Amino acid sequence: MPNFTRTRKARHLIAAAGAAVAVVGGAALAQSASADAPAAKPPAKIFELVGKQTSAGEVDLGEPGISVGDQRIVHEDLYRDGEKVGDHSSACTFTRVSPAALQCLGTFALPEGQFTAQSLLHLPAPPSVDVGITGGSGDYSTARGFIRTVPAGATERHFTVHLQR
Question: Which of 51, 63, 74, 118 is the most buried (most CB within 10 A)?
């Protein structure tokens, strides 16, 4: 006579195992489908700023003259359409002397919040430099993107901000 209890247990185990495979497989497929589907990114907000230098200084550490660790620090007022809207500060540290390379970190402060940017700058500098946006606060708390900076004389720079939030 067949053992119905053992057969029922076997059926339940097979059904449970099948359900587990279906759930895990379904979850894996759902994750795979969502990973394969590109997330819709909102378009970048692009705006122009003009930086007018208000102060600048050099920090000479170690050996006299330019050496690794020396810094160039700049502060600028920021203008949009001729109106002062904020300020920008940056500190660039020499990481190599010849040929010169500087690690630059900057913060842009606007009424909506602040965002930070950084780049590795090689000298002589090219006519424009794209600087990566690394984060922010306020309305810029999820800021990403880049800033194209173009010198416009000895004490003025033009910034084109490509902001992704």
Answer: 51
Helix, strand, coil fractions of the chain, as percent rounded to 5: 20, 50, 25
Give the CA diameter of the chain: 99
CB 106 within 8 Å of CB 90:
yes
Q: How far apart are CA 53 and CA 36, in angstroms?
A: 46
pTM, rounded to two decimals: 0.74
3-state secondary structure of 8: helix
- Here the tokens at position 142 are 């999820």
Residues contacting 85, CB < 8 A, separation 6+: 49, 78, 79, 110, 111
CB of 54 closer than 8 Å to CB of 161: no
For residues 146 and 129, the answer to whether their CB atoms sit within 8 Å is no
Q: How many residues does the chain have?
A: 165
Q: What is the pLDDT of residues 93-107, one digit of tens each?
A: 999 999 999 999 999
